[in-house]
Design goal:
This protein is α/β, with parallel strands linked by helices. The protein has three domains: 5-25 and 36-263, 3-Layer(aba) Sandwich (Rossmann fold), CATH 3.40.50; 269-340, Helicase, Ruva Protein, domain 3, CATH 1.10.8; 399-434, no CATH class. It contains 20 helices and ten strands. A six-stranded parallel sheet has the order 4-5-6-1-7-9, with helices on both faces. Strands 2-3 form a two-stranded antiparallel ribbon. Helix 7 runs parallel beside helix 9 and helix 9 (180-193) runs parallel beside helix 11 (217-231). It starts with a helix and ends in a 9-residue tail after the last helix. Mean pLDDT is 82; it is low at 359-380.
């Protein structure tokens, strides 16, 4: 017991093996007609090593909230908000972001991680004394595409109602003339009343795109920063790398939005292990072996993005069933790929590959940017980019050149003066008089 009912309500962290067992999902094809099995393949969820890191981040964020503020602090903070006075007793809660390429599984992973943590705890007593409180450990909010400060605030209020069955949204909606600042104050009071542990804001790039378009960047940033500072509620942002551009340009958000920057799998052991796990769930009559050629084909068209890999796997089987074939083959797989018309970026923002979380078989490359590059990124607001990887070598095959070829001479010398000297020795050039 910690003499803090909020903190005592947070469950102990699961071991990695227990975590994997609880979040994985495998389809059951028993008694399901062949044509309906393709949809059930979509129920397959393969745990990856990075997901446990996300789970750990979210659970620590919740604990940080309850270590930051006590019950007495909550009462004082609510009174301060109602009287529009600023309180300075509370320290800052944790905040961060999980950004990455679309399709790497950010939102689905966060949802599954949060499903392992109770969302609402109803207190009636604590340490033998009456204590009535509906505590909310986490909220998941999806940013509307036309998001503004008011609509984001309404989304948070609606998420509270879904969690505890309250009617805050109905009361707030009745006040049609409620200003954005007044609505934001209501959100802060609600978060304090129910001791919200962490708010996860998904698709944050929508809010940023709208804010930039409507020139509302500063009000949006002010709202998000105040929510962290004045309620001591931890916040995590989920979205694509587009959000990083604004995060880097705004000083208030640079340190508050640090976190994971996820890139697709590399064509390595981590990718092969993921593919082998889903490959066993073929629904055709005969099993198609997973060869290096097939694995490379799928990687080159999916870019190592897990969502695309799953789509190719499903569509390949769909083409097999429609062709009334017993076994999927490379030709049918290619037909499925053409039908999907997947578009993989040729360059990705700098980050950490999903493969880097596999420590047993994969040798990780440094994920951090050099200090100077990082400073340039923060100064210019333009994240660095890296080219995407391919399993099969791209471009023309290397040409075998003669030893007297100028390019070969340069490769051997690597210095202009030495190259010129070598060409002179071979009688390929003559130096003029100075």
């Amino acid at each position: 017991m910690s003499d803090n009912p909020y903190l005592d309500s947070v469950p102990e962290e699961l071991s990695k093996s227990d975590f994997v067992q609880q979040i994985k999902s495998t389809p059951d094809f028993a008694g399901v007609p062949m044509t309906n099995r393709i949809a059930k393949v979509g129920e397959l969820f393969v745990p990856m090593d990075y997901m446990y890191t996300v789970y750990d981040l979210l659970l620590r964020a919740i604990r940080t909230t309850y270590l930051t503020i006590t019950m007495l602090d909550t009462i004082r903070q609510i009174q301060g908000l109602r009287q529009e006075s600023v309180s300075s007793f509370a320290t800052e809660a944790e905040s961060g972001s999980i950004l990455g390429v679309p399709g790497v599984g950010k939102s689905s992973t966060v949802r599954r991680c949060l499903s392992l943590i109770p969302q609402c705890v109803t207190h009636s007593e604590y340490n033998g004394k009456p204590f009535y409180k509906k505590q909310i450990l986490h909220l998941f909010v999806e940013c509307p595409s036309d998001c503004s400060v008011k609509t984001l605030a309404y989304s948070i209020i609606a998420a509270v109602d879904r969690a505890i069955g309250s009617e805050y949204f109905r009361f707030a909606a009745k006040q049609s003339r409620l200003s954005a600042s007044a609505l934001v104050t209501q959100v802060k009071i609600i978060c304090l009343n129910h001791a919200v542990g962490v708010i996860v804001v998904d698709e944050i790039q929508n809010a940023i795109q709208t804010a930039v378009h409507n020139k509302q960047v500063r009000p949006l940033i002010k709202f998000l920063v105040e929510l962290v500072n004045e309620t001591c509620t931890s916040i995590y942002f989920i979205g694509t790398s587009e959000a990083e551009q604004l995060f880097c340009r705004q000083e208030h958000l640079q340190r508050r939005t640090r976190g994971l920057r996820l890139l697709p799998l590399r064509p390595d052991a981590g990718y092969r292990q993921f593919l082998e796990q889903i490959w066993q769930f073929q629904i055709t009559e005969k099993y198609m072996p997973l060869t290096d050629r097939v694995a490379n084909l799928i990687y080159d068209h999916s870019g190592g993005i897990p969502s695309y890999i799953m789509q190719i796997f499903q569509q390949g089987q769909a083409q097999t069933i429609q062709a009334e074939r017993e076994q999927m083959d490379e030709k049918l797989l290619k037909q499925g790929i053409e039908l999907l018309n997947l578009s993989v970026p040729k360059k990705f923002p700098t980050g950490i590959s999903l493969s880097d979380f596999t420590v047993s078989e994969v040798v990780s490359e440094p994920a951090a940017l050099p200090e100077q590059s990082r400073q340039d990124e923060l100064t210019q607001g333009k994240p660095q980019v890296v080219p995407r990887l391919y399993a099969n070598p791209r471009g023309r095959k290397a040409v075998i050149r003669n030893n007297l070829d100028l390019i070969e001479l340069w490769k051997r010398k690597q210095e202009t003066e030495k190259t010129v000297q070598g060409m002179e020795n071979l009688g390929l050039i003559e130096r003029g008089l100075p």
